[in-house]
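Memo to structure team: turn this sequence into structure tokens by end of day. - J.P.
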Amino acid sequence: MNISNEMKMSDHQRKRLAKMIEKYGERDSLVRHYRNQIAASQTGQSAQQMYVTGMMKRSSS
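Reply from structure team:
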């Protein structure tokens, strides 16, 4: 994933994410977790709330 295509991030968040990707790699769990935290902060929810909400979204059959 390209950092320039990320959601609206502060310069600090963008720099930190770039350093994490450089150190750990794009698919590392720490990098994914940090991206989830950024996404959560932009929606006003916690990462935990987004995870639980995401898990409960299911199509009815």
